[in-house]
Amino acid sequence: MHKKLVILAGGASSRMKKESVAKNLTTEEIVQANERSKGLIGVGAQGRPLLDYLLLNAKKAGYEKIYIIIGEQGDLFKEFYGNQNANNNFNGLNISFATQYIPEGRVKPFGTADALWQAVKQFPELNADEYAVCNSDNLYSAEALYALRRTESPNAFISYDRDALQFSSERISRFAIAKLDESNRLLDILEKPSADDLEHYKDVEGKIRVSMNAFKFNGAMVYSFLKNCPVHPERDEKELPTVLLNALKEFPNSTVGIPFSEHVPDLTAKEDIADVKEYLKKHYPVLNWQI
């Protein structure tokens, strides 16, 4: 099983920086929300970042080599997790940093597929191995991260039961949904589904499945699709679901959706901060790295 995890942390965090009427936030939390990458916001014990908890779960799941993709102004990550570009030791994890540079003519990063493309260019060993990829602002369980290591499918993603996610129905309705066959192999991803679409996208368990950006990739298989990923016509970004779908055209049945039914804490906007803090208090009363 592979032991490499790539964490996407180079985004602009534009929704988090928007003005908000979120209650119960301290002045310091508002400052951090406006200035820090989302995964570095201090929602944990002693003000530790959400990313600490994701790294803890990654260690529990058996990952050893972590690549954090940061933005051009991402020096704060190095203050938390090691000041070298590669091979920092953080609680037994080997942490390296890839930088997602903004192309000339743009004011914000070019999306998740571009982030991963820049990472595999900076760390070519990823192209000769399998690895997992996830967001820095979601807290995936150790069990879900381990499932990405365990699967024998070249490519995979965690396909979450939409009804188990503890978000508002309006927020959930915006999630893209996955169409899987009877063996949970990916057939299609539908953005902005209508109510009529939902019945046709249920899996063999009768569940509507969504991705929360937790993937496993075969580096050699997806390399050319990362390199040549087209720009999404509406969001003007290059996105990892596009990479998966394009790879399917050349390699049918190469991607499975691994079914999971659990909540995934998410730091998208200031309104999420209080909820994530409560979740961590309840489920992670102690941040224990002795595994």
From TrEMBL:
Pfam families: NTP_transferase. Residues 34-243 form the Nucleotidyl transferase domain. GO terms for molecular function: nucleotidyltransferase activity. Keywords: Nucleotidyltransferase, Transferase. InterPro entries: GlmU-like, NTP_transferase_dom, Nucleotide-diphossugar_trans. It comes from the Bacteria. This is Sugar phosphate nucleotidyltransferase. It comes from Flavobacterium flavipigmentatum.
